[in-house]
Amino acid sequence: MDRDRFIQLVSTEQVSLKRYLLGLCRGNAEEADDLFQDAMTRAYLASPSMLERARPGAWLLKICYHCFVDRTRSRKTDSLEDSMEFAERLQEEQHSDDVFRYETLYEAICHLPEKERSSIMLFYLEDRSIREISHIMDIPSGSVKGYLFRGRQKLKELLKNEI
Prior knowledge:
This protein has 8 helices and no strands. By secondary structure, the chain is an all-alpha fold.
């Protein structure tokens, strides 16, 4: 794949990738931007044949996920940004009323463990199939279903008092 085609692919997927990384980073925009740049550098340097796949968006999400995992392994810090800023960044393309409506949900998602948070975000926010999530996270599809189930249960518990 040539440089122009790679730039076009990244431009097409950029909003989705950044939203996903922002959620994984629990709203820390600076860390999400750093991870995005690291992931796109890895993707560009990867074998050109990898980008010729039928689902290059899923491949880029997989690289983003692995960059996040690598970073958290090397640096065990967790910072939780103000939930309002997090909601605004995740929903930058939506109207401001929608941001307020979903603020509590995004705050609750931040409290989920990494794999549950990632599964929930990929399935519900990025509209990825269980099979794609399994490929992105390098886990069996049964594990994805388990993370989704547990994540939904925890979100239900966290949001019970808000409803």
